[in-house]
């Protein structure tokens, strides 16, 4: 389990090593987790929850109603695991490479107060091989902040996560922010406007105070508002980013190089380490795909939203790589049609047979080759299962943020301010912007609690200055 065994996958990424932190190994691994946090340049977080409450309520037209529903859910449900991916910038010899070393942790968290477990959440976790026995036996106990003022390691962990001034990356992060605040910070305020004021104070962008920079960035916001992706669920955003990063590296353009490792790998028990396979399909960038057959096999609901109401009973493929293949085919067809129109306007007559070297459909588009081994022989779709989903999801979130910010990171080492403190809202065409308001004061509970965070930040700044 030494660092020598860790994959050096670079731009392609073959596997994601996830370290579980639990009640049994906590004393050994905790110092390494804290050290990794303090060295991080980006911290990605994802939560596994015991439920979200009424879906209609958390997607209500009124944002105040949404917040009220999320607040109610957070005070009655719990955090089952806390996924943390820590990205540390590494110098590279190549000019067009942005290098990072990453360590991924999955902290099993067991709430000490009574909480609600939703049947849908149980089914979802069971379908994804969540180990409930291990969770009950090995979960790190914590006292929910909205119910107790007792100190516990996980509440201290949040202070550590906020102390390095590293950006915090989330995916569709409003629910995560409400749960993090409620369980590990303090009692959430009664209104959304005050919650926004608290978050804006907790996650400053530097626009208001030059010496305070510790923003939030959301990979779903990047997908929807910056990149305008056809879909924005996490597996899609990550897999598309992973593919594009591989192609950028292949063409010698700016890309992200990821490595894993660290001294913690030398002491982590084998039972607490999981290597999650995420290799891209072999030859994905070159193989031809039968467009019609691929589209027929693909579950449209899964391709668009990342889930299917039919679940395992669905006869269609729940395969994000297949969805990306179909998307690529459609994009290439549109490109060819645009080229034909431009050629026609220029008075050029070119044979599509000579240009593309393939058979033609009645509409003039080349029919994609059916010689596709991935369709002839069932491949294993990319999916994340097990008790470490939160850790893997945190990594996918952070990787997507880094890839789509690679040009700014290469230029000046910071994330673009245009993507910070903006949280997407389902069904809304504008994000929730976390900025201070002169009309709304921060909550009293936050004003008391934030002093601990600021003290931790000053301590971290002093330690960094000594290095």
Automatic annotation (TrEMBL):
<feature type="domain" description="C3H1-type">
    <location>
        <begin position="293"/>
        <end position="321"/>
    </location>
</feature>
<keyword id="KW-0479">Metal-binding</keyword>
<feature type="region of interest" description="Disordered">
    <location>
        <begin position="334"/>
        <end position="386"/>
    </location>
</feature>
<comment type="similarity">
    <text>Belongs to the CAF1 family.</text>
</comment>
<dbReference type="InterPro" id="IPR051181">
    <property type="entry name" value="CAF1_poly(A)_ribonucleases"/>
</dbReference>
<keyword id="KW-0862">Zinc</keyword>
<dbReference type="InterPro" id="IPR012337">
    <property type="entry name" value="RNaseH-like_sf"/>
</dbReference>
<dbReference type="GO" id="GO:0000175">
    <property type="term" value="F:3'-5'-RNA exonuclease activity"/>
</dbReference>
<protein>
    <recommendedName>
        <fullName>C3H1-type domain-containing protein</fullName>
    </recommendedName>
</protein>
<dbReference type="InterPro" id="IPR036855">
    <property type="entry name" value="Znf_CCCH_sf"/>
</dbReference>
<dbReference type="GO" id="GO:0008270">
    <property type="term" value="F:zinc ion binding"/>
</dbReference>
<dbReference type="InterPro" id="IPR006941">
    <property type="entry name" value="RNase_CAF1"/>
</dbReference>
<keyword id="KW-0863">Zinc-finger</keyword>
<dbReference type="InterPro" id="IPR036397">
    <property type="entry name" value="RNaseH_sf"/>
</dbReference>
<dbReference type="GO" id="GO:0034472">
    <property type="term" value="P:snRNA 3'-end processing"/>
</dbReference>
<dbReference type="InterPro" id="IPR000571">
    <property type="entry name" value="Znf_CCCH"/>
</dbReference>
<feature type="zinc finger region" description="C3H1-type">
    <location>
        <begin position="293"/>
        <end position="321"/>
    </location>
</feature>
<dbReference type="Pfam" id="PF04857">
    <property type="entry name" value="CAF1"/>
</dbReference>
<dbReference type="GO" id="GO:0015030">
    <property type="term" value="C:Cajal body"/>
</dbReference>
<dbReference type="GO" id="GO:0017069">
    <property type="term" value="F:snRNA binding"/>
</dbReference>
